[in-house]
C-alpha cells in the first residue's frame, strides 16, 4: 500500500465537496482557513453548488472535481469539506486508473467512506479517516484532533493510535491481530454490499463507526455485515464512536450491548471506544495502513 507524500507549507490543497453542500459563505470561510494554515488552495466547483438540498451538485460534476484534483500535478492533498449524502452518485464516474497513477493525501469520513474504501482497494494508497474542513476544522479544531491528524499525515515507520485524555480503549473480545485497516461508516459500508464498490474485509482489521442511528437500525446493519461474511472474514474489529446513537425504546440496551450480542460467537479480537468518527475531539486513522491490535496492552498500531 502506497503512503502519500508528506504535505509542506506552501503546497496546494484542494478542497472538494463529494457529498452534501455547504453555503457559499462556509465555502469561502473554509478556503480562507486553509490558506491561513499556510497552504495554497484550489476549490472544487461543487463546493459552491447545491442540488435538491442534499447534494453538492450532480454526481457527474462531483466525480469531475475528484478526477481533476487527482490529475492536477500542483495539488498535493485533497481535503473533503464535509460528508452528508450521495457520494455514491459519483462512484461509477471516477477514473480509478488515473487516480491510481496519481496517489496523494486524501482526507474525509462519514459519507466519504465510499471513496476511502475504493481508493484503498482499487488504487492501492492510504487515505485518512480524519477531520474535514467545514465539519471539524472551521469551528471545532481542538488540539487533540489537530495533533492526531498531523501525526498520521507525517508518520514515518509507525504510529500508535491515541484516544483523548480520560478515554481508554476497551476490549470486547481478547486477542491480537494484524492486517490492513479498512472500513468507516457502518451505513455506507452496508449500502455498498452487492455492488462493485463493496468493502473487502478478508484478513483485514475492520473499523466501524456511525452517527445518529437508532440501535435497532445499527443492529440490522451489523447483521447485514454478519450474513455477508464481512465480520467472519475480517482478522479483527475496532469500533469507533457511535455519536448520538440511542435506543429510545430501552435505554439500558446500548450500542455496546447490541454489538456484544451480534459478536457473541466471534472469536477474533475486538476493541471499542476508539474516539474516531463524528466525535469531538477525533483521532485520525490511516486507512489502508497495516494495523496491529493487541487487547493485552490495549494498543492499536499502524505501520507502513
TrEMBL record:
Coiled coil: none annotated. It holds the Pfam family Peptidase_S66C. Residues 13-130 form the LD-carboxypeptidase N-terminal domain. Keywords: Carboxypeptidase, Hydrolase, Protease, Serine protease. The active site is at 110 (nucleophile), 209 (charge relay system), 278 (charge relay system). InterPro entries: Carboxypeptidase_A_C_sf, Class_I_gatase-like, LdcA_N, Peptidase_S66_N, Peptidase_S66C, S66_fam. CDD domains: Peptidase_S66. Residues 178-293 form the LD-carboxypeptidase C-terminal domain. GO terms for biological process: proteolysis. GO terms for molecular function: carboxypeptidase activity; serine-type peptidase activity. The keyword Secreted does not apply. Belongs to the peptidase S66 family. This is Muramoyltetrapeptide carboxypeptidase. It comes from Sedimentibacter saalensis.
